[in-house]
């Protein structure tokens, strides 16, 4: 009887935890007056709030990884605060706090970092226009296609990483919690993805994602990075999108697509990784 009660209590606690994690991961709402988390802040130090590290990459979120990459590339002093609970004023991660102010959303963070730390512009306005267009493609259509194959088609693998690595749930609870997670956020996430990209079939998602990859290969050409030999903020966006699906610890179709047809993008990942994150990856295969 005692063991039965303990088991029931554990399941109940686990259900509450996964409900909280699922809600915070997908469904958090905007806050009009965010409370500052770091009260004794240091001048010009960026406090980056993001999801906890995973085993095979610095982050599961492409947007968190983009901002951390920018901070490293441009040698900006920063501290990382890993959290599954806190959220920025837009209800999402990442967000930063800088000189007593909170900035949420990776797009806005990008703008603030460029302006505050004088990140160099590209040589021409044409290049800046290209960079903006590439970034919007990556964070819109490309991101939606990746989410379809990374999350919706591999929901158990995705939630296993969240529950086991990021939330540190006990192994025996994972299958049960995955079911709860699917019930809580599965349909909502599917709707968000189809709203972002379109209500497509698997084959159509695959075709559109490959069109984006084709464009990226064409833009990259024989350059080391998108605009030459130096990493730009747009490279940080591209790296974040690619590596957070390619380097996850479960098989997904985007990995297969990249291995089969897009060696230039895999070489690009390796170049960026060795220059910016030489010690932060564990190859799971």
From TrEMBL:
InterPro entries xrefs: FAX/IsoI-like (IPR026928), Glutathione-S-Trfase_C_sf (IPR036282), Glutathione_S-Trfase (IPR040079), Metaxin_GST (IPR033468), Mito_Protein_Transport_Metaxin (IPR050931), Thioredoxin-like_fold (IPR012336), Thioredoxin-like_sf (IPR036249)
One cellular-component annotation, GO: cytoplasm
Start and end residues of each Thioredoxin-like fold domain: 62-151
Domain of life (superkingdom): Eukaryota
Source organism of the structure: Diploscapter pachys
Protein family per UniProt: Belongs to the FAX family.
The protein, known as: GST C-terminal domain-containing protein
Residues covered by the Metaxin glutathione S-transferase domain: 210-271
């Amino acid at each position: 009887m005692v063991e039965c009660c303990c088991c029931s209590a554990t399941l109940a606690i686990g259900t509450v935890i996964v409900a909280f994690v699922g809600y915070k991961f997908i469904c958090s709402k905007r806050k009009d007056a965010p409370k500052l988390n770091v009260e004794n802040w240091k001048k010009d130090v960026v406090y980056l709030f993001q999801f906890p590290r995973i085993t095979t990459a610095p982050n599961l979120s492409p947007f968190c990884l983009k901002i951390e990459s920018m901070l490293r590339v441009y040698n900006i002093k920063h501290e990382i605060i890993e959290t599954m609970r806190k959220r920025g004023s837009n209800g999402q991660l990442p967000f930063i706090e800088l000189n007593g102010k909170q900035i949420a959303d990776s797009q806005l963070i990008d703008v603030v970092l460029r302006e505050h730390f004088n990140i160099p512009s590209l040589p021409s306005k044409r290049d800046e226009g290209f960079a903006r267009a590439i970034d919007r493609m990556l964070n819109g259509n490309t991101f939606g296609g990746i989410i379809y194959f990374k999350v919706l088609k591999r929901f158990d693998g995705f939630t296993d990483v969240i529950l086991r690595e990021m939330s540190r749930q006990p192994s025996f609870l994972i299958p049960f919690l995955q079911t709860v997670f699917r019930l809580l956020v599965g349909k909502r996430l599917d709707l968000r993805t189809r709203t972002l990209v379109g209500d497509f079939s698997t084959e159509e998602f695959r075709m559109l994602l490959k069109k984006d990859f084709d464009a990226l290969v064409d833009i990259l050409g024989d350059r080391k990075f998108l605009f030459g030999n130096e990493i730009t903020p747009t490279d940080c966006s591209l790296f974040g999108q690619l590596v957070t699906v390619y380097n996850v610890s479960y098989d997904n179709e985007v990995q297969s697509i990249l291995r089969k047809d897009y060696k230039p993008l895999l070489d690009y990942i390796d170049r960026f990784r060795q220059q910016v994150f030489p010690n932060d990856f564990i190859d799971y295969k």
